[in-house]
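Late entry, written up from scratch paper. The run itself happened at the end of the previous shift, but nothing got recorded in the book at the time, so transcribing now.
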Amino acid sequence: MGNVGRRVRRSALAVLTGAALAAVLTVTAAGAAPVVAQPDKAAPAARTDVYIRDVAADVGLQPHGFNPLWASPDIKVCWTTIECAVSQNPRVGFTNYIFVKLRNPGPYGSGTDSGVLRVYRTTPGGGAVWPTHWTQIGAVNVVVPAGVTTVTIPWNGVPGPGHFCLLARWVSQTDPMNFEGPDISINTRYNNNIAWRNVDSVRVILGGPVIVRPFAIGNALTVPAKSDLVFAQPGVPLQEVGGRVVADLGQTLFERWRAGGMVGTGVRPIGGTQVEIVDPAKATIGNLLLEPGERVEFSLNFTAAVASDKEFVLDVTQFGPDTSGAERADLGGVEYLISVGDK
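Output as recorded:
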């Protein structure tokens, strides 16, 4: 997962971006009459540069090669107006609060900035087409001086099941986006004023019900494309405590998988539309055909047999072609932080 995102090339988009961010063009002509400034026209505002980190090491460079793109440390959900130490899953039906840190300045400007911070949500997963699959949660006008400004946006009446991807966008006339296309991964990598967070806490209770989480995969291209799902547990595997992770692909996605030859590694079908993740190091469900602009949802089911004071991590990532021309790019994913207890 860590190396795939680096395949996003500095394509023609980057060239256009460089041109768009060039210094103001000046024209001179020998012997020409002096140009008198018009008093009713304001001088152009200086370039500002507010950024939101994609990863802890992010200093605002655009594009950058860090991964994953979808676990921004500068976006956090809390249950109260006081910022929590660790982001929480939003409580359904209550008012929650989204905290976003705006950092000023980045490498492309200076000075106090003013603009609008907008936050959006979608079903967790990858391949969410911008703006089709995103719903705005809220927006607030902000003045951002030098330093770190923490902005709080209330999230009223959170709908069930309470598990979402979040996207923050800083919109400013003096700090413009380089470009925004349908591919949210490209947008995030090339715009330091866009950040994305897909982190979900999973609490498994012994003897309790199966814990279910939604996941969606999509295709931002204008042509059909095939994607792979990759499952990896970078630390202690959940299987150590008798844990199981089962992907219930649902009828549509399971039939797509069957039609594609049931390509996969480290997995096994266990009946119906369910596929168990067997290899904790790396498992794949591949060759999943998606139509242009399509996004298909399935579910992940978590169980365990023994309580533990350890935290288990599962990363689920969609890989496939993106709008830059890369054949196998990180199209988005979710980091699941799993704990197991007896209550």
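DSSP finds three helices and 18 strands in the chain.
(Scratch paper discarded after transcription.)
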